[in-house]
Amino acid sequence: MSLRTRPWLLSVLLCSSLPAQGAEDLAARVDAAIAKVQPRIIEWRRDFHQNPELSNREFRTSKIVAEHLRKLGLQVDTGIAKTAVVGVLKGGRPGPTIALRADMDGLPVVEQTDLPFRSKVTSTYRNETVGVMHACGHDAHTAILMGLAEALVSVKNELPGTVVFFFQPAEEGAPAGEEGGASLMIKEGVLEKYRPEAVFGLHVFSNMPTGMIGYRGGPLMAGSDSYRIVVKGRQTHGARPWGGVDPVVVSAQIVGGLQTVVSRMTDITANPAVVTVGAIKGGIRNNIVPDDVEMIGTIRTFDPQQRREIIDNIRRLVENTAAASGATATFEIDPGSNPVVRNDPELTTRVLPSLQRIAGGGNVRAVPLVTGAEDFAFFAERAPSFFYFVGVTPREQNPVTAASNHSPLFYLDEAALPLASRSFAALAVDYLSGERRGDR
Ligand code: NI
């Protein structure tokens, strides 16, 4: 049909939002295309699961992703943030630009599931030989986004706007001395280059059953800071502690004191917070008081002001507790902290009907704050963003006691993948179509 014989078509083409019927057709076609690609999503996911790679080492994964996107005819950019792959799909109709993000890295965990495609891969991490496992489900995220790209390409001509696919490395944190992840992608200019007006991401989650979606407007996941405390005493014989300064006892006092930072000094009615000591290292023998003790740990917060106060309180407590015993102590925050994952409230309201349409209203639930962290936060800091959880624990199991993400027994129910990919596709297409379809 030509534009001359159908003048109304011109206005449709120039309009950034599709008329309702067109949007419905498009959404239905994408949903059908996603259904068609499901078996391949499972194939890709199993392949990635069996061949996991550590952060900033996602060479094989990113090669497979880039080849797939090229085959689909997308503009593909590599060489970003070490192993990131960015694909750009320009739809045939005018419309907004959005980014969909998937992370690609595995963890230094020895897999203990009995899956036929379990990982037997080993690698080196902190100078130790370790097992590698997709214990956080990033294998599924990557496979889902590859499937989504394929489904959206099949409706390319009718697609209003542009979809940018961010395949991101190193969500779990770059190895010591390296940069990586979302912050490095942003530093290297992906937001300026591709200019998404909104960024979307999802995470598979063991604490919810298959069929459920969890969301939350505003703060969703905690900001995280890693810290290091070094207590410096003076080495002496264990039989003559008065001859030195004992950093082991000072460290014990500091660990006790740290318990008061949240319980006594933080307004927990405003926001929850967590201070954890994860490791203590010091000494070599039963009868030597060592020179120093090192402690490392994590801080989780939901508010920048509260974060600053907690850091100040820890520093004061650490330095003065040490001073009280004649020791000294340093407290350092690692540079690679994650901000809070904050969902844009308006965007959350806008995409909710899309999730409800796909999952069924009763299966989409507002979730409490999550004290886990996610470097998607860096995207959410700079562009209106929405991040949500998809349950992956088989319905017959109790999600509360199921092995959690990062466990060597983490198990992803593949029956959850259709909902994950269909909901991701629906919110993308509905957003591009400028529609709040579930509202009607
Ligand atoms: Ni994760």
Jot down its keywords.
single chain, 440 residues, alpha+beta, Aminopeptidase, Alpha-Beta Plaits, 26% strand, elongated, disordered N terminus, binds nickel (II) ion
General description of the model:
The structure is a single chain. The protein has 440 residues and is of the alpha+beta class. The protein folds into two domains: 8-221 and 340-433, Aminopeptidase (3-Layer(aba) Sandwich); 224-333, 2-Layer Sandwich (Alpha-Beta Plaits), CATH 3.30.70. The chain is 36% helix and 26% strand. It is built from eleven helices and 18 strands. The protein has helices at 7-14, 20-50, 59-71, 138-153, 181-187, 190-194, 247-265, 304-324, 345-359, 377-382, 417-432; strands spanning 75-80, 84-90, 93-103, 122-125, 128-131, 160-168, 198-209, 213-215, 218-221, 223-232, 236-237, 274-282, 288-289, 292-301, 328-333, 341-343, 364-366, 385-393. The strands form five sheets. Strands 1-2-6-3-7-18-8-17 form an eight-stranded mixed beta sheet, sandwiched between helices. Strands 12-14-10-15 form a four-stranded antiparallel beta sheet, covered by helices on one side. A two-stranded antiparallel ribbon has the order 4-5. Strand 1 and strand 2 form a beta hairpin. Helix 2 (20-50) crosses helix 4 (138-153), helix 7 packs antiparallel against helix 8 (304-324) and helix 9 packs across helix 11 (417-432). The longest helix has 31 residues, at 20-50. The chain starts with 6 loop residues before the first helix and ends in an 8-residue tail after the last helix. Residues 1-14 and 436-440 have low confidence and may be disordered. Nickel (II) ion (NI) is lined by residues 136, 138, 171, 203.
